[in-house]
Design goal:
four-stranded antiparallel beta sheet, three-stranded antiparallel beta sheet, alpha+beta, 5 helices
């Protein structure tokens, strides 16, 4: 009896030990699996900001490129700042089908509060000076040409007093708040997005969100119909200069009569042609200051 009772007791203890060990091992495996699962979820989880950023990349920067244009002018510190500010305002702009974009409304107002500085600008017919936002016409001109190559609509555009060095004659787009604006219409059936960048006098702008048919080509052609030479020079007496001294106040510039065409080809065959603009840039006479001390 005692031996049987002892045997039963030993067997009971052995079974309990196995049960306790099994529970311990099971709990450890469960904890380990839980930790592993938690780690995996943590690695895959994204924050709301990251989700928003990913959505912006997808929505605002589609890979399809409709058109692209680039201009380069002489780099100058305050002018470069104005180019940068206006491009930052344009960058990421969404343009719905049929919508018209106003450059002045998007990039302006051209004030110190908006980050603009005094830069070189045409302050009157043919005369250079400095004003807030000076230089942003390079951005509007680049935007204009990108729109032309994308076969988009042009609702408003103005020429400068004389052609700009960074673009072919007749392809400039002058803005002057609030009188002169550049307005572009999205004539596609999908939303378009503007990508704009400026650095060291170079401006790059492209329209994204659609593509031209692979067989389609858009050509923009500028023609000079007539060159108009300036007549002589204008002399202005100045008591601030010594007698006989001369100072050129304004260099002479030729005038031009221009015509700009947009031609669309499909498989090398001309399918449409339109006259975009006909401009007359007036000739500009040389203006010379001549010293006249006796007039004091």
């Amino acid at each position: 009896m005692e031996r049987k009772r002892l045997t039963k007791t030993v067997m009971l203890i052995f079974c309990l030990s196995i049960l306790i060990t099994g529970v311990g091992v099971g709990t450890g495996m469960l904890a380990k699996a839980s930790q592993s699962q938690t780690k995996t979820v943590k690695e895959e989880r994204t924050t709301p900001d990251e989700e928003k950023q990913d959505q912006n990349i997808t929505d605002k920067e589609p890979e399809k490129i409709l058109s692209r244009y680039e201009t380069t002018a002489k780099s100058e510190e305050t002018r470069d700042q104005n180019l940068k500010v206006s491009c930052e305002k344009l960058n990421g702009t969404e343009l719905q089908p049929g919508e018209v974009l106003s450059f002045n409304a998007m990039a302006g107002p051209f004030t110190e509060e908006e980050g603009y500085l005094e830069g070189p600008a045409i302050i009157s017919e043919g005369q250079m000076g400095r004003e807030l936002g000076g230089g942003v016409c390079q951005v509007s001109t680049t935007l204009y040409n990108a729109a032309l190559l994308g076969n988009l609509g042009i609702a408003e555009r103005h020429r400068h007093s004389f052609p700009m060095d960074y673009v072919d004659v007749g392809l400039d787009a002058m803005i002057n708040e609030p009188d002169s604006d550049l307005k572009i219409q999205n004539t596609t059936d999908v939303p378009l997005y503007i990508e704009a960048f400026a650095q060291d006098g170079t401006v790059m702008i492209q329209f994204k969100g659609a593509e031209l048919d692979a067989r389609t080509e858009v050509h923009v052609e500028s023609s000079v119909l007539n060159t108009i030479l300036p007549e002589g020079e204008e002399i202005r007496l100045s008591a601030d200069l010594e007698d006989g001294a001369r100072q050129v106040l304004q260099e002479e510039r030729n005038g031009y009569e221009t015509r700009v065409y947009r031609k669309v080809y499909n498989d090398g065959r001309l399918i449409s042609e339109e006259v975009l603009s006909e401009d007359t840039y007036p000739p500009i006479r040389r203006i010379v200051l001549e010293g006249c001390q006796q007039s004091k």
